[in-house]
Amino acid sequence: MAEDGNSTGVQNPEENPSNSENVQIKDIPNDNENIELGIQFKNTGEINVPPLLIDQILGQEDAVEIVKKAASQRRHVMMIGTPGTGKSLLAKAMAELLPKEELEDILVYPNAEDNNNPRIRRVPAGKGREIVAAHRAEAHKKSQSKTMIMLVLMVGIMLYAVLTNSILIGVFICLLLMTFGRQFIGRDDALIPKLLVSNYNKQHAPYVDATAAHAGALLGDVRHDPFQSGGLETPAHDRVEAGDIHKSHKGVLFMDEINILGIESQQSLLTALQEKEYAITGQSERSSGALVKTEPVPCDFIMVAAGNVDALEKMHPALRSRIKGYGYEVYMRDSMPDTPENRDKYIRFVAQEVMRDGRIPQFDEDAVKEIIREAKRRSGKKGHLTLRLRDLGGLVRVAGDLAGADGAPYTTASHVLRAKKISRSIEQQLADRYLENKKDYESFLRGGSEIGRVNGLAVIGGDSGVVLPILSEVTPSLSGSEGNIIATGQLKTIAREAVKNVSAVIKKVTGRNIEAIDIHIQFVGTYEGVEGDSASISIATAVLSAYEKIPVNQTVAMTGSLSVRGDVLPVGGVTYKIEAAAQAGIKKVIIPKSNELDVMIEDAYKDVIEIVTVSSITEVLEYALVDSPKKDAFLKKLKEALKPEPEE
Prior knowledge:
Homohexamer. Organized in a ring with a central cavity. ATP-dependent serine protease that mediates the selective degradation of mutant and abnormal proteins as well as certain short-lived regulatory proteins. Degrades polypeptides processively. It is an enzyme of class 3 (hydrolase). InterPro entries: AAA+_ATPase, Lon_arc, Lon_proteolytic, Lon_Prtase, LonB_AAA-LID, Mg_chelatse_chII-like_cat_dom, P-loop_NTPase, Ribosomal_Su5_D2-typ_SF. By secondary structure, this protein is an alpha/beta fold. It is built from 20 helices and 25 strands. The strands form eight sheets. A seven-stranded mixed beta sheet has the order 18-19-17-16-21-24-25, sandwiched between helices. A five-stranded parallel beta sheet has the order 5-8-11-1-12, with helices on both faces. The protein has a three-stranded antiparallel beta sheet with strand order 3-2-4, covered by helices on one side. Helix 10 crosses helix 12, helix 11 packs parallel to helix 13 and helix 15 packs parallel to helix 16. The two termini are about 45 Å apart. The N terminus is likely disordered.
């Protein structure tokens, strides 16, 4: 049974090979000890939140230092890491560090010599509005003067028409004057420059998130003109629209998932980085804007590119080289050590989330402790706190919403616990439905014993465990001369390689080749496919059970990788897998010994499931196979087969 306390060790099964019930089970230390904080407070409203974003970032000290250096030296930065670890927040923080005194406005003017080549002018921030206003006032004065002349002329024409008794002719002439005069008067507005980029009254350098931007939004565009001729067309300079690269001039351009940007756009982005200016032209070849191309528009921005590790594969090599050669690359941490100092940082994190939301009650001390306890669970590693703070921030807001709905003055631990149930991910909800359906249709067994059948464990979406039944059958080889291992269940690359590794162990354990037999392995209900090697010990147990005709205890579930020498290796997601087994009604779970400190199960599960840690396939079979003389003889043979050969 999983209990609080220190480890006492696992008794070697060799000392009592025939009675696994008497084996001392390891006391798994869990995550339910009291959370001690270095700061005493009644609620998070008492916690000071730093004014600068750079000082609000948790656990990314290396990245923070790089961002500070990059901001001071105007270097580009590539951030790679798990989603939700603070990449966009670091980019925003960099914008705050840049000097706002360098900001500029960008104006686009008509070009009298070539209407399709508008002129560009840069002025200090805030001056652009004044220049446009001055031009507009001047154009308005000219327009008023022309309008007055037209009115006087029309009045004179009508007086003459009345005196000569030619009123209809006079009206006709006035209508003609109005038609052509409107076009004549309106041409003054065509000379007013357009404020392309404005930094009026900005407190910080611009931060522009260009993630998933199409070419026009990123590089600028020229709007289509439906009239195009007849004197009613919109002036070319007035149809020019700035792109994100221009709006981020003297600031930060952030682009997450850089690999999804089209290769042509990446090439254009590289040009903008190199030249620090990029002319705007129409992005659609069918548009009249394709004829328009401005003078080069300033775009002296700092590029912050971000993504997961796979983003590097599809990124334009020259673009990456530019960032790497003129900037920094940083890999984001996804957890930090669980120290008193870092727990205190989590207090500030909760206070920051409450402040940013602005609509939820402050958290009391017990609620913050519950958030920290969940941060330990989500880290997946004992002695660590997760740095995937976006998801954890969602938990803070849901708990706050529940407190607000209850009319509570503060958010308490009970609100956080309720929020954990409400804010389950889609994968967790699917896993729950999966377990319900498996129970209804008895896809996995929770009692008795059966030959060649094992309750494996898997993870969906990284935070949801499921029971994965694995069946095996040994049959005579169809060819008679060549045996095969046939695995079904949409296995992917790593899972198939794991099956091959298991075959090496099977050959060594049985002491014979498998040319005369076919080994069938079925992963039941894996409609979305199987990836990873965490089912290796489950496969080996199912196959050896089928081969030796020894039943497997169906109250047991297991997870663990397996080396070709029979060693049990660590896997991920053990906490979620154990909880899934407990929900399914499984009584005992076998996990790798190297994962014992990663177990942080909820209080609700700690008294309903027994956790066993193992380091070899021999120990796995000791706990999984049903006791019998046949089992004892097989385990004795197994230990001899896996005994290391003496050195010569």
